[in-house]
Amino acid sequence: VDTASTPIDEIIRMMVGRVIYEQPKTESLVAPGAPVVLEVKDFRSRDVKGVSFQLKKGEILGLAGLVGAGRTEVGRLISGADKRDGGEIYVNGQLADIQSPCDAVELGIGYLSEDRRRYGLCLGLSVANNIALTKLDIFTKGIAINERQMKSTARDYRDKMDIRTPGVDTLVRSLSGGNQQKVVISKWLVRNCDVLIFDEPTRGIDVGAKSEIYKLMRALIDEGKSIIMISSEMPELLRMADRILVMCEGEKTGELDIGEATQEKIMALAAPQV
User: Fold this and answer.
1) Strand, helix or coil at 12?
2) Distance between CA 170 and CA 19 in Å, rounded?
3) How confident is the prediction for the chain on average, in pLDDT?
4) Coil, strand, or helix at residue 94?
């Protein structure tokens, strides 16, 4: 194949065996008058400086910026994984006291770490065990786990999310990166989280699996979920987000509706001013 003359779409088709073409969004798909489900006001920490924004029901809000801009830190502050020095968070209009990931989960907020193998999965456990991790109480009676119910639920999510695995007893470490990410998503859906924070959702995933993750995210939006998508890949943000918030050195430097967003505009806001 002459890579210089072959279109990138054709190269991708040859790599994965099917056509995958993701066009950038040209307009927001958020319903007019959609309610605000999450609001961050003046978030402050060592790496975050007075960041404020809103997330609407059915919206994918992209967080863009260079490495070290503070995007991941914002996600971790919302999820209670890190402590903030100041600021407030509102969930469905109510002031929320989130001091830990458990607090966030109780309020319907799930955080999918950029390092899913380290923070999102228990690699030595099965697919079923990982899917059940956030909701063990419904599978437990006394000190015993209802294996039948847990595996039945895991099979339901395996089918719904198209997790390619020999069975739900398979160790999750043996799955591909894309299928591991589907297990992490399933874990939060079992918990019925309505706000999902995806931190670098397609990192370490092949191009075919990326397309599947995008479709899953769109399906979640169709179900009424809301997503904060942190990504270093600008084409990914431009094809998925309804609105893009740009950060630089811990500060929010701009906000772009998807209809006006371009890579050039994002980079202009993401680069430090000299």
Assistant:
1) helix
2) 30
3) 90
4) strand
Distance CA 16, CA 76 (A): 34
DSSP strand E in 100-170: where?
109-112, 140-141, 144-145
Residue that has been written with the tokens 């998807």 in this structure: 258
CATH number 3.40.50.11030 is the correct assignment for the domain at 8-26+37-270: no
User: Given a cut of 70, is residue 274 above it in pLDDT?
Assistant: no
- For residue 20, the number of C-alpha atoms closer than 13 Å in the C-beta half-sphere is 20
Bigger pLDDT: 65 vs 273: 65
Residue 210 CA to residue 95 CA, distance in Å, equals 35
Side-chain half-sphere exposure of 137, counting CA atoms within 13 A: 2
* Contacts (Cβ under 8 Å, ≥6 apart) of 195: 37, 38, 55, 91, 108, 109, 110, 225, 226, 227, 228
Kindly give, in sequence order, each residue whose CB lies less than 8 Å from that of residue 219, ignoring residues fewer than 6 positions away: none
pTM of the model: 0.87
